UniProtKB/TrEMBL annotation:
SUPFAM superfamilies: Glyceraldehyde-3-phosphate dehydrogenase-like, C-terminal domain, NAD(P)-binding Rossmann-fold domains
UniProt source species: Candidatus Planktophila versatilis
UniProt domain GFO/IDH/MocA-like oxidoreductase: residue ranges: 130-245
Official protein name in the record: Dehydrogenase
Gfo/Idh/MocA-like oxidoreductase N-terminal domain span: 5-117
Gene3D superfamilies referenced in this protein's UniProt entry, alphabetically: Dihydrodipicolinate Reductase, domain 2, NAD(P)-binding Rossmann-like Domain
The family this protein is said to belong to: Belongs to the Gfo/Idh/MocA family.
Keyword list, A-Z: Oxidoreductase
Record-linked Pfam families: GFO_IDH_MocA, GFO_IDH_MocA_C3
Length: 315
């Protein structure tokens, strides 16, 4: 397999602690270039090349694919620019600020025949994949309800997550994880209606906590909560007519380099420690090389973004 040469836009926490290490550990993968506002942070990611601007990176002929970890309001702009420059794009979640932006990104991917994927890394975890496969195979019977949460007391002073204009707020930051799990379980063509949405707004105008109840396909109830102020917890429990399944523990979506457990009815399955970031990077690389792999479909990302739009309309 030919190596995938990556360019990273942004050298913040996610790129420094998760993405660059995963790329360096991944097979057939090279960190070719980095561009950020801080050249020292760029150098710390150990790329082959450091670029002084995002434009220079996306136009680097030695870069095959671009990972975008910029603030949320810049995702669409730089995804489209990279796609038009002929690069494949793996973009941090949330994909964009609204579904219109996601549609623009998808259009650019189609027109330039490039791969565009939202980096919801939890979807590549074998435990999550097993839960989804088990439910969709009908093992729990008819799907009745989903309960999910991602909450933690955030220390985000001075962070873009406090800015509405930059796509801040708990729903955008961590609510996408429960919503993506819901989308995977009900299908991205399921009809959705909002039954309830309660929001606690912070002084800067972002949601500190959003709690919702949705109904999919007329019969499936899905409850979720995303919070920057509640005690730390992550959960995903799926109820069917025969039994329920659950991601065991308080890291339903961020199990990373640690063993994990999945409850299927009365049985517990054990999963070895894995790096879902590395699995995501390797699968994306195989995809753009034309090899068999799984990546998150654009249709699913658009479904989730539309759900975000409808929930945010209730703020």
């Amino acid at each position: 397999m030919t190596n995938t040469r990556w360019g990273l836009l942004g050298a913040g926490w996610i790129a420094t602690k998760a993405i660059a290490p995963a790329m360096h550990a991944a097979s057939d993968t090279i960190v070719q270039a980095v561009a950020s506002r801080d050249s020292a942070r760029s150098r710390a990611l150990n790329p082959v090349t450091i670029h002084e601007s995002y434009e220079a990176l996306i136009n680097d002929p030695l870069v095959d694919a671009v990972y975008i970890s910029l603030p949320n309001h810049l995702h669409c702009q730089w995804s489209v620019a990279a796609l038009k420059a002929g690069k494949h794009v793996l973009c941090e979640k949330p994909f964009a600020i609204n579904s219109s932006e996601v549609e623009l990104m998808a259009k650019a991917a189609r027109e330039n025949d490039r791969v565009l994927v939202e980096a919801v890394w939890s979807r590549w975890h074998p435990r999550m994949a097993r839960l989804i496969e088990y439910v969709k195979a009908g093992n729990i019977g008819k799907l009745h309800s989903i309960e999910s949460s991602f909450t933690f007391p955030a220390n985000i002073a001075g962070n873009y997550r406090l800015s509405p204009a930059m796509g801040g707020g708990a729903l955008f930051d961590v609510g996408v994880y429960p919503l993506h799990a819901m989308a995977a379980l009900v299908g991205d063509n399921a009809q959705m209606e909002i039954q309830k949405c309660d929001v606690t707004m912070g002084p800067t105008g972002i949601d500190l906590t959003t709690t919702w109840q949705l109904r999919f396909a007329g019969s499936i109830t899905a409850q979720g909560v995303a919070s920057f102020e509640m005690p730390e917890n992550q959960s995903l429990i799926v109820h069917g007519e025969k039994e329920s399944v659950e991601l065991v523990g308080k890291e339903a979506f961020t199990s990373w380099n640690s063993p994990s457990q999945l409850r299927l009815g009365e049985n517990i399955e054990e999963f070895d420690a894995v790096d879902p970031y590395q699995l995501m990077i390797e699968n994306f690389g195989k995809k753009i090389q034309g090899q068999e792999s799984w990546v998150l479909p654009l249709e699913t990302s658009l479904f989730v973004q539309r759900a975000l739009d409808q929930l945010r309309a209730r703020f």
